[in-house]
Amino acid sequence: QVQLVESGGGLVQPGGSLRLSCAASGSIFALNARGWYRQAPGKQRELVAGIAPGASINYADSVKGRFTISRDNAKNTVYLQMNSLKPEDTAVYYCNADLLFSTGWLYDYWGQGTQVTVSS
Questions:
Q1: How far apart are CA 51 and CA 76, in angstroms?
Q2: 98 Cβ contact partners less than 8 Å away, ≥ 6 residues apart
Q3: Which three-class secondary structure state does DSSP give residue 35?
Q4: Torsion angle of the four alpha carbons 108, 112, 118, 120, in this order, in degrees rounded to the nearest 10
Q5: CA–CA dist 75, 30 (Å, integer)
Q6: Mean pLDDT throughout 13-33?
Q7: Three-state DSSP class for 88?
Q8: Going by DSSP bridges, is the β-strand pair 30-39/104-110 parallel, antiparallel, or unpaired?
Q9: pLDDT tens profile 68-92
């Protein structure tokens, strides 16, 4: 069964950077990224960076100017570049996407998440 797999998380000091990646674990024709979300302990999952159907991008106010979502259609991969990280960015980060198989689109896939911890 094809899954979305996030990678690139880890422990980083405040002010540091990380780049998260999200790709499918098996063979697909295309990946339509919906966005990156995060969930901190005791909090609800929240949108960090989203890509609308018209390809417009929106960011949570808390990450504007620091995070950038991008995608490589040739690699069917979506990225989240995170700069100037703060302790409050600590959370599990999830990728959300639609996947195109030979049988058609399957919508609203979620990855298992990757932990980002910002601490000195």
A1: 15
A2: 31, 32, 34, 105, 106, 107, 108, 109
A3: strand
A4: 180
A5: 9
A6: 94
A7: helix
A8: unpaired
A9: 999 998 999 999 999 999 999 999 9
Binned at pLDDT 50, 70 and 90, residue 1 comes out as confident
Written as six digits, the tokens of 76 are 């069917």
Q: Which two tokens stand for residue 4?
A: 């979305």
Cβ count near 114 (within 10 Å): 22
CA distance linking residue 114 with residue 21, whole number of Å: 10
Residue 17 has which token pair? Answer: 């950077």
Strands 10-12 and 114-118 come out as: parallel
| Of 46, 114, 116, residue with least CA distance to 86 | 116
Phi and psi for 65 in degrees, rounded to 5?
85, -10
- The phi, psi pair for 27, rounded to 5°, reads -80, 125
**Pairwise CA distance, residues 85 & 10, whole Å:** 12
